[in-house]
Design a protein that fits this description.
Elements (H helix, E strand, L loop, with lengths): L11 H14 L5 H6 L3 H14 L7 H15 L2 H13 L4 H9 L8 H16 L4 H8 L4 H23 L12 H17 L12
Length: 207
């Protein structure tokens, strides 16, 4: 996939967010931010809104990532699947969860609350609406504010999947480690091995 808008030429805020997010998930700078950041005024408002949904929402982070990943699978957004698989692991999703979310509510093993969330996401994707039964089922697990948030969260990531596809945003590059960082990591690994009685008796440098 070849991007329609060249990443870069963005504000310090967008660069900081892109590089910080990349460090968190183990990639290079996140291209979504480097592309959207080219519309500087819009980017700032969008970033504030997006942050209120994730990671600053009312729903537990694990559930937020389940919702986002389900939307990404339904929309066929490989970019979002890759990005939020990493974030999902950090939020407590196990490998079984990550496999099952592609199957959705039909998979075995979900709690009643998770099942209600996933069914709602599937219905929102297919119908752009929730019927009264689905709304009532959500109400057994979520209060009014959480239900509002769920609708906004699912709709937001539907929108992002469309934007990513339309702008042809390429997958984020693997994170490149500097020679200094690699050497420091090797020294730390050697010192750890030595403490376990298997490595050379050399103390790592300070600083």
């Amino acid at each position: 996939m070849s991007g329609r808008i060249t990443p870069g030429g963005v504000s310090l805020l967008a660069r900081a967010v892109a590089y910080g997010a990349g460090r968190r998930v183990g990639t290079g700078p996140v291209r979504l931010f480097l592309v959207l950041g080219r519309h500087r005024r819009l980017f700032t408002g969008w970033l504030h809104f997006a942050g209120r949904l994730m990671p600053g929402g009312l729903l537990p982070r694990r559930e937020t990532e389940l919702v986002i990943l389900r939307v990404a699978h339904l929309c066929g957004s490989a970019y979002e699947v890759a990005h939020h698989t990493r974030l999902g692991r950090a939020a407590g999703l196990g490998e079984a969860d990550l496999r099952r979310v592609a199957e959705g509510p039909a998979a075995d093993g979900w709690s009643a609350r998770e099942l209600a969330l996933l069914r709602a996401v599937d219905m929102l994707h297919a119908e752009r609406d929730l019927d009264d039964a689905a709304w009532a089922e959500l109400g057994r697990h979520l209060d009014e504010r959480e239900r509002i948030e769920l609708c906004l969260l699912a709709g937001h990531y539907e929108m992002l999947a469309t934007v990513i596809r339309t702008l042809r945003i390429d997958p984020d590059p693997p994170r490149r480690r500097s020679a200094r960082a690699a050497a420091a990591s090797a020294v730390r690994a050697g010192w750890a091995a030595r403490r376990r009685g298997r490595g050379p008796a050399r103390r790592p440098p300070a600083g």
